[in-house]
């Protein structure tokens, strides 16, 4: 007995020592992992990551995203600096000699005293699923070749791995985040980007040359795997004192998305299917109240999701609905009041956001009972509600956010201000594994992780068990 007590005491002591590194509060875990509090500087424009490819008018800033609703299409975008050149893409399947051609469009825009280079967008459709394609852009001595792999055919049990990156910017830390993601053995096949791309608006007159340099920086990943875009506040580029009154002008000229194929009227909100996932991208910085275009679209969109075809329902929006960091605290509250009820009703598995430059994961919680009189305005555990993950820790020049609401609210399961990326690894229709990777760690170390039980599957099991 005495031995047992010593044993229990030792285990308790050991647990205390282990947890000593972590500060436990009312809610979950606030990591005390201490990263140095230095604000990262942007990489100089002459850094090799920003290098302009050789050759006259050589294509640069090459990036791809999904080009249709099902995953058989790709939008290929690139920039030519000197003259329009050609908007043609030549592409062929890995095991085929047959080279196909597609011709896109070229656009330019002006932003105060900045004139954009020539921005090409070419949509390729009706590709084979699960196939490696090579593609070539540019002409003459300035041809450049890349490749991508199309996703497997849409279906409920199809494994697929998404990377999560947000608020990336173009600092030395941004470069570490991207490198860490690229070399992660979990091998993300597409990135869900949770907004705030270049941070060009941090420069005088929102120096759009930093949009160009950012696109050269990330080309090494996004030319080879699609990044699914969502817009953050740093994409708004609203500068009325200099006559720039069209929100999202640089972003929407540079980053085309397949919004029309999901019946959306704006590139700022849309949906795609990819393997066993249904991804809904929303805009935190566009009108979203009742009767607005975004609201109407979402209300017609959610009932269309066929969970027996795509069991994993993922929402991406820049501003988190749940965050317990002091900076940006409750900025997502009006959006939460507006939409959380539908996320719960339609059993959204996970909502990924950025904006807060840190990492946080909630438990499965909901807070939808309030009706102005009943006082029921506290988040409660709800096994069939989404998990909310904030992953705005890409490494931009604004630095990390350290100040947290104290004590840790009960809805918050884990929070830590470190740079990193996430991997959402769908195993089958019932389970997915999420891991958050700090830049400083090897891949064997997961800063945070969670097994996801698919909510559609789980709720159908629950109803089966209660019907007996
Ligand atoms: Fe943001």
Automatic annotation (TrEMBL):
The keyword Zinc applies. It is an enzyme of class 3 (hydrolase). GO terms for biological process: cellular response to phosphate starvation. It comes from the Eukaryota. Its EC number is 3.1.3.2. Residues 1-27 form the signal peptide. Residues 385-442 form the Purple acid phosphatase C-terminal domain. Residues 59-149 form the Purple acid phosphatase N-terminal domain. Its cofactor is Cu(2+); Mn(2+); Fe cation; Zn(2+). GO terms for cellular component: plant-type cell wall. The keyword Transmembrane does not apply. It catalyses: a phosphate monoester + H2O = an alcohol + phosphate. InterPro entries: Calcineurin-like_PHP, Metallo-depent_PP-like, MPP_PAP, PAPs-like, PAPs_C, PAPs_N, Purple_acid_Pase-like_N. Keywords: Glycoprotein, Hydrolase, Iron, Metal-binding, Signal, Zinc. GO terms for molecular function: acid phosphatase activity; metal ion binding. Residues 161-359 form the Calcineurin-like phosphoesterase domain. Belongs to the metallophosphoesterase superfamily. Purple acid phosphatase family. This is Purple acid phosphatase. It comes from Lactuca sativa.
């Amino acid at each position: 007995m005495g031995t047992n007590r010593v044993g229990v005491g030792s285990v308790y002591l050991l647990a205390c020592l282990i947890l000593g590194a972590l500060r436990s509060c009312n809610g979950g875990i606030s990591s005390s992992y201490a990263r140095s509090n230095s604000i990262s500087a942007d990489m100089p424009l002459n850094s090799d990551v920003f290098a302009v490819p050789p050759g006259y008018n050589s294509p640069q800033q090459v990036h791809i995203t999904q080009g249709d609703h099902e995953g058989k299409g790709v939008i290929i975008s690139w920039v030519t600096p000197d003259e329009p050149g050609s908007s043609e893409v030549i592409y062929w399947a890995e095991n085929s000699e047959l080279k196909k051609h597609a011709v896109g469009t070229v656009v330019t825009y002006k932003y105060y005293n900045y004139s954009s280079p020539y921005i090409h967008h070419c949509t390729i459709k009706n590709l084979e699923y699960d196939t490696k394609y090579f593609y070539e852009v540019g002409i003459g001595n300035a041809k450049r070749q890349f490749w991508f792999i199309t996703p497997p055919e849409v279906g409920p049990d199809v494994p697929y791995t998404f990377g999560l990156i947000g608020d990336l910017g173009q600092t030395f830390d941004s470069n570490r985040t991207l490198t860490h993601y690229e070399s992660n053995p979990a091998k993300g096949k597409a990135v869900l980007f949770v907004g705030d791309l270049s941070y060009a608006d941090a420069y005088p007159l929102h120096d759009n040359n930093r949009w160009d340099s950012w696109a050269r920086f990330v080309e090494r990943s996004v030319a080879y795997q699609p990044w699914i875009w969502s817009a953050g506040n740093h994409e708004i580029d609203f500068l009325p004192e200099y006559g720039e009154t069209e929100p999202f002008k640089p972003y929407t000229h540079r980053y085309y998305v397949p919004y029309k194929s999901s019946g959306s009227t704006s590139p700022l909100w849309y949906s795609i299917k990819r393997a066993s996932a249904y991804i809904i991208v929303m805009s935190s910085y566009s009108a979203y109240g009742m009767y607005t275009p975004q609201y109407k679209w979402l209300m017609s969109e959610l009932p269309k999701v066929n969970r027996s075809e795509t069991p994993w329902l993922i929402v991406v929006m820049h501003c988190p609905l749940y965050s317990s960091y002091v900076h940006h605290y409750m900025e997502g509250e009006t959006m939460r009041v507006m939409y959380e009820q539908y996320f719960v009703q339609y059993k959204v598995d996970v909502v990924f956001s950025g904006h807060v430059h840190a990492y946080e994961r909630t438990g499965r919680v909901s807070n939808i009972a309030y009706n102005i009189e009943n006082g029921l305005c506290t988040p409660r555990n709800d096994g069939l509600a989404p998990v909310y993950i904030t992953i705005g820790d890409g490494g931009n020049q604004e630095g990390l956010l350290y100040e947290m609401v104290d004590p840790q609210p009960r809805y918050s399961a884990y929070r830590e201000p470190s740079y990193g990326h996430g991997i959402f690894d769908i195993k089958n229709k019932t389970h997915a594994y999420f891991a958050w990777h700090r830049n400083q760690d090897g891949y064997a170390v997961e800063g945070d992780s969670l097994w996801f039980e698919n909510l559609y599957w789980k709720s159908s099991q629950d109803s089966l068990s209660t019907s007996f």
